[in-house]
Amino acid sequence: MNARPRRIVLTREAAQCRPWRDALAAAGATVLELPLLRYSPLPPPADVDPAAFDWILFTSPQGVHAFADAGLSPGSARVGALGGGTAAALADRGWRDDLGARCRDGAELARAFVAAGAAPARVLLPGPDHRLSEPAAALRAAGCTVVELPLYRTEPVPAGDLPRHPFEEGDLVFFASPSAVGAFAAAYALRPPCVAIGETTAAAARAAGFDPLVADAPDLSAMARACGLGPVTDPSFREMPS
After folding, report:
1. Running DSSP on this structure, what letter comes out for residue 48?
2. CA gap 124, 122 in Å, rounded
């Protein structure tokens, strides 16, 4: 992209949009918040004890929040995070990222886990009720016992609850998940320029008719770089332990 985008459209869940809005505004960007997703908590299964696992791998900040909000704790289990945002969410709860990986998606996290020599192990994967199968498959192929723990459901905001014509010439949409791409495609026929946070989201965007730019790391700073914006301080790293 050669021209600086006139306005950035943020499509994450509302609470997740706010720190990105503030960071982009501090960098001089104009922002439209257009939350396309909602999270609904699910009750944790009574027969799953996190302390019975060797590792708990979190693939998103929302997974950390849902885990803590369900009253769960890692106990003696070691903890791994997908990237800086997830590690920051762990730090917010007083939990340490023992793996220290910085990956673009769950499959890459699983490969990093195996490459670190952590497998085989008993691994708990907290997250949404519907998730990609690659992370668990890669861990099981390495001899791990894997239990997926659904703690929340991601739901698109109904099209009828969204503004009908929110876009302007020069808008650039930031997509941070395939779910957001799907919610956008269900609500709008327009396919404006966009930036995807990683290749999984980019693939969903291409399937929906977008021609996305792709960030080289799963964070706001990389998404800003992908579209030619100046340096943006990623709020995901604000409380990273040294």
Report:
1. -
2. 7
User: How far, in Å, are 30, 36, 138 from residue 10 at the CA level?
Assistant: 11, 9, 32
What residues contact residue 137 under an 8 Å CB cut-off, 6+ apart?
none
Q: How far is CA 181 from CA 177, 187, 210, in A?
A: 7, 10, 9
Please state, in angstroms and rounded to a whole number, the distance separating the CA atoms of residues 142 and 221: 33
73: Cβ–Cβ under 8 A, 6 or more apart, which residues? Answer: 50, 51
Q: Scanning the structure block, which residue is given the tokens 């600086």?
A: 4
Structure-derived torsion over alpha carbons of residues 132, 136, 221, 202, reported in degrees to the nearest 10: -30
Quick: pLDDT tens for 111-170.
Answer: 999 999 999 999 999 999 988 788 999 999 999 999 999 999 989 999 999 999 999 999
Confidence of residue 242 (pLDDT cuts 50, 70, 90): very low
- What are the tens digits of pLDDT across the range 184-221? 999 999 999 999 998 889 999 999 999 999 998 878 89
Length of the chain as a residue count: 242
Reference 11, options 151, 133, 169, 186; nearest CA is: 186
